[in-house]
Design a protein that fits this description.
single chain, 392 residues, three-stranded antiparallel beta sheet, 49% helix
Length: 392
């Protein structure tokens, strides 16, 4: 029996599953996992080719679905919200995989929480630094004689300072690991087995086409205008080839004019069933973001007669318009509030030596930029509602 510690195993499930399979091929069969101590326990036995899958749920998994059992899956054990299942069939013979939507949700929630913690640290440190720079340039900082200045630190003080320094570093390392492996996690946890012919075509003919690259920044604040722009490009004979991972660069090649309907969709954790429904209706996935718990996707469909629509009823369309409004406001309002606070503080300090006109101008510019996005979002919501009521 051997025990191995994996501190951050839950942030890269796909890598851990491959590692467990490699250990089984070496003759070490997984026996147990201690969630608290992060210790994996293995029994020494015969070498086996075992495929492992790690599932996550609010109460774990009490039993395996019949479809999984018929394909050779069996439950090893459950610990807390985690369930470990295994399959001794050859990997290429396994046709059914467990749906792990809860695991994907956990990955994304973890990413959002860690991002918020890191962003909070950066904003607070940034505001303090700007205030300090403002005081230095205004001449309000007084220099004290180091001989007369005595500061005493205790053990608790040193501990607190160490935590303040180490904590953001740990958060950054974990967040970096999640972001680095996010695409693999998405494919392995959620989109495994789905045919994405768009990405396959990219690999095959990347070097054969003379691509036209166009930048589109901030389209999420007006997704309806992006749809119209893409459709107009297709009518001109500029066919969409691919979209960069960050969604800012659009690649086109000169082809033939086509009538293609584009839809920019925003869903909270879209599931496999939704993707299958779109595919059955001949929609192709052109872009999928993975930057937040709310995921943007861009779908396209070629047509000849009536223009197709993804949302068939008014209620679904209204829900989509509200999601776009709320998600965009969540990114705009906090920064606007911070700018307002700093503008007020700089204005109050206008007659003091702490005031710095350059800092004030920076926050005013940021406020106006965010205000522009704010009104852009409201106009988009108004247009979406209007178009939905026209269709119904």
């Amino acid at each position: 029996m051997i025990r191995i510690i994996k501190l951050f195993w839950s942030f890269n499930i796909i890598k851990i599953e491959k590692w467990l399979r490699e250990k089984a091929l070496e003759g070490y069969i997984l026996k147990d996992v201690n969630i608290n101590t992060r210790v994996f326990t293995f029994n020494r036995g015969d070498k086996k080719d075992i495929t492992y899958r790690i599932c996550y749920g609010d109460k774990g998994i009490d039993h395996i679905e019949n479809g999984l059992k018929r394909n050779g899956w069996y439950k090893l054990f459950s610990t807390g919200k985690w369930t470990f299942i295994a399959n001794e069939n050859k990997l290429e013979e396994i046709r059914v995989q467990p749906l792990r939507e809860n695991l994907l949700k956990r990955i994304r929630v973890s990413k959002v929480i860690l991002s918020c913690l890191l962003l909070y640290y950066v904003i607070t440190r940034g505001m303090f630094s700007l205030l300090l720079i403002s005081m230095i340039f205004s001449g309000s900082m007084e220099v004290y004689n180091s001989n007369n200045l005595r500061v005493e630190y205790g053990i608790l003080d040193y501990g607190f300072i160490s935590i303040k320094l180490i904590f953001p570093i740990i958060v950054f390392i974990i967040l970096f690991a999640i972001l680095k492996n996010e695409e693999k996690q998405l494919k392995g946890c959620f989109y495994e087995g789905l045919d994405n012919k768009i990405f396959k075509e990219e690999l095959e003919c990347e070097n054969k086409l003379e691509l036209i690259k166009i930048f589109k920044l901030g389209w999420v604040y007006s997704p309806d205008k992006l749809e119209q722009w893409l459709q107009e490009m297709e009518r001109k004979g500029l066919n969409l080839y691919k979209i960069s991972k960050n969604g800012c660069k659009f690649y086109f090649f000169k082809g033939k004019p086509r009538k293609i309907k584009y839809v920019a969709d925003l869903k909270k954790l879209p599931n496999e069933i939704c993707y299958e429904i779109y595919k059955e209706d001949n929609w192709d996935l052109a872009f999928r973001s993975s930057s937040s718990i709310f995921q943007w996707t861009i779908w396209k469909k070629e047509y000849k007669g009536k223009k197709p629509e993804i949302y068939s009823d008014r209620e679904e369309g209204i829900k989509y318009a509200r999601r776009v409004l709320l998600v965009n406001l969540l990114t705009i309002v906090p920064l606007m509030s911070t700018c307002v606070f700093m503008i007020i503080m700089e204005t109050l300090w206008i007659n003091s030596r702490i005031h710095n006109i350059y800092i004030l101008l920076i926050f005013i510019l940021i406020f106006f930029q965010q205000s522009y996005l704010f009104f852009k979002t409201l106009l988009c919501y108004s247009r979406l509602k209007r178009d939905i009521y026209k269709l119904s």
